Amino acid sequence: MNLNDIKKEFATDNREVELMTPRGAPTGWFFILRHESSKEVQEFMRDYRTKLQDVTLKRKANAQKQLMAQHEDGLRIAHVAGWKWEKGEDPENGRPAFSKRELKTVLNDNEFGWHVRNFIDNEVGSLEDFLERSEDS
What we know:
With 137 residues, the protein is α+β, with helices and mostly antiparallel strands. The protein has one domain. The protein is built from five helices and three strands, in the order H-E-E-H-H-E-H-H. The radius of gyration is 18 Å and the shape is flat.
């Protein structure tokens, strides 16, 4: 194997996953997710570490706690590249187009937001799910 062959083995793709109800029924709402190694997620983490280091050096405990709380949903937003609807977008009937603002609204929903956050966390956890598929796999 040469370096290019090895790099291909580590290449990741975005993956599309349908949100299912707690009883296992399909929703027709598909999230397009990025792996942790993606440029967008890595940039988010780099910015977060810089901000955290800054407030830590300034010994601002409240700012540190606030930054850590914001980090969780910010990371989830970085992981979501988009979404699509099986029946197409229809904002008037509850199928909005993807935007970070719309995703924040979903994540901030009191009860439902917890389930979407949990779904994103679970679906981005496995590197194997993001690896490019060969013709024989």
